Amino acid sequence: MAEDQAAGAGQQQANKQQFGIRKVYVRDMSFEVPNAPAIFSGEWKPEVSVDLDTRNTRIAENTYETVVRVTVTAKQGDKTAYLCEVEQGGIFVLSGFDDKTLDALLGSYCPAQIFPYAREAVSDMVTKGGFPQMVLAPVNFEALHMQRVRKQQEQQQGNGAQGDQGDQGSGGQAGN
C-alpha cells in the first residue's frame, strides 16, 4: 500500500511538470558582403569562423525566452567575404521543475530545439548571398551547458577565495 502511495505521488509530480514551445521566431538577422563584387573573383578558399551564444530570459511566470545567436564570418585572405548573424528565439513554457532541472532545460534542451531554425537561416542567407552553401554542424548544447556550469562554479570558488584575501588586504590598507 505504501508503494502505491509513493508511486501515486511520483505520478502526480510528473503530471504537474509542463514543457511547451509557444513560438519560434527570428529575433534578428543580418548578412553583409563588404567586399562585393571583387570577393567573387578568384578561387574560393575561405577561412570560416563560427561564434555561438545562448541566453535565457524569464518573461512571465513559467514562461521563458531562449535566444541562440550564431555569427559566421568567412574571410578570403585578409578580406571579409561575408558576415552572417542570426538570433533565433523561442518562447517556452516550463513549470513544475526543480531549479536544477529547469536550469538544464533552459541551458541545453531549449537551445537545441531552436538551433535547427538558426542553422537553416544561416544556410539560406549564405546561399542567397551568392556563396556556396554553409551547413553548420550539429551542436551538443548539453556539453556546452555543463561546461558553462563548471566554469561558473570555478569562478564562484575562485571569487570566494579572492574575496577573503581581498577583504584582508583592503583591511590592511585601510589601517595604513
UniProtKB/TrEMBL annotation:
Origin: domain of life = Bacteria
Record Gene3D superfamilies: SecB-like (3.10.420.10)
User: InterPro entries, alphabetically?
Assistant: SecB, SecB-like_sf
Q: Is-annotated flag, keyword Chaperone?
A: yes
Its annotated compartments are: Cytoplasm
Can you list the GO cellular component terms from the UniProt entry? cytoplasm
Q: Where is the composition biased (Gly residues)?
A: 160-176
Q: Where is this region: Disordered?
A: 148-176
Q: Which GO terms label this protein's molecular function in UniProt?
A: unfolded protein binding
- Per the record, the coiled-coil ranges are none
Sorted alphabetically, which keywords does the UniProt record give?
Chaperone, Cytoplasm, Protein transport, Translocation, Transport
Which terms does the UniProt entry file under GO BP?
Answer: protein folding; protein tetramerization; protein transport
Q: Which family does it belong to?
A: Belongs to the SecB family.
Relate the assembly described in the record.
Homotetramer, a dimer of dimers. One homotetramer interacts with 1 SecA dimer.
Function of the protein: One of the proteins required for the normal export of preproteins out of the cell cytoplasm. It is a molecular chaperone that binds to a subset of precursor proteins, maintaining them in a translocation-competent state. It also specifically binds to its receptor SecA.
- What's this protein's name? Protein-export protein SecB
